[in-house]
Amino acid sequence: MWEEAGSAPNNNIIGIDPILNDPMNGDYSLSENSPAIGYGCLSFTYKKSSPINSVKINGLRLTSSQNERVGGKISIDTIWDQDTIKVMDNILIENGTTLSINPGTTVEFYGDYKIDVKGQFLAQGNSDNNIYFTVNDTTGFGMINQRLGCWGGIQFHNTSSANDSSKIEYCNFQFSKHFTDLARLEDGCGGAISVYNFSKLMISNSIFKNNVSNFGGAIGVVFDSNPLIYKNLMIENYALKNGSAITAMYSYPKIIGNTIYNNINYNFDPTVEERSAVFSFISKATIKENIIYNNFSNPGQMRHNKLYYTTYNSVEGYLQENGNIISDPLFIDPENHNFNLDQQSPCIDAGDPLSPFDLDNTIADIGCYYYDQIVDVDEAIVIDECRIIQNYPNPFNGSTIISYKLYRENSVKLEIYNTNGELVFIYDLQRKFAGIHSFNFDAENLNSGVYFYSIILDNGDRYTNKMIYIK
What's the whole-model pTM score? Predict the structure, then answer.
């Protein structure tokens, strides 16, 4: 079809609006009344189209049989439940609208795009199936002060409190960057999650690694905000000025039960001498039962926090008051990212005695992973002989740590299978004592994909979990 006047050779029609469904939002399918129906290639028949295949979408449920490429506004309640969601543009969740992401989904950003939440955001994985937020191409990410090889994070800026609470649980965040200027606090801060003037948010049981901001490498909380930041692991995040893990400004967040380790300040501003992992500026942040240790900081791991609100933490170089301790937390293998507590850790049962007990019915431990003391109880009550722990990192590139916990001494074997059920790796881990053990698995010779790893005991019992390898 042409708009220009003239003859219409070969059954072309001219000068008539083709009446497309919604071309302004990327839906170029024909409407029911289009004069173009019946023209074109005769091998195709007319079928009413849906904007579901458009890059810019206005709310939908994505399933395994539908297009996984998304971007633009979400104006009706939407569920993402594919294995991989490919984000091709900025996402705006409009006020009054809910975006839900199901466990096991990987949200992969194809550029420096962000999720801007004006409604409700529910990313609720579980201990067996996390949700992953990452970028498809990390080229240039190492140029830490430039917006390269990254995505733009999740922002809750002036989100209306009329919406139900947003929840982020059992998620992994990596390779996000968000920069701001202190002169423009309304732009927020925080490399992976940025909160401004919003409180109805819980961030729990999640992992933050390789995220960057000038303030708050992992999370930034600004201006009258009160989110709950609970039981998260924050490692190897970066701040260009301060708060390599968390920054709170003019706010009062609850920072409880997190492990904050080996986060780094790359301070390019010679006028700013302070460097810390947790930076609390004119804020009343509740800081309780956290491990804050081995972060590149000066003069301390925390700055400007209020002692009254800082209780029962393990903080390197801090004051031993209000239940706080300064001892090495004694992780099992921090160099290989195993941050479970060793049985000799001073963090065991060192939390607030008034806090809810850990799952083993003992006083709360400090940090995001508690030490399961059920091994010290009469073994007759133990049903399973082993508990398999989710490998870390996951997804992974190169190698990953596979951990498991034995409740009794046992002979152990590791087997790894692909999705076709083919055995691709087997290793005799030999006899192990009761406790938590780790194995560094190198997947260099495998193809990218989903794999299943099994711990097999000498009685034939098998404990299996899933991992994702990205080559």
Answer: 0.70
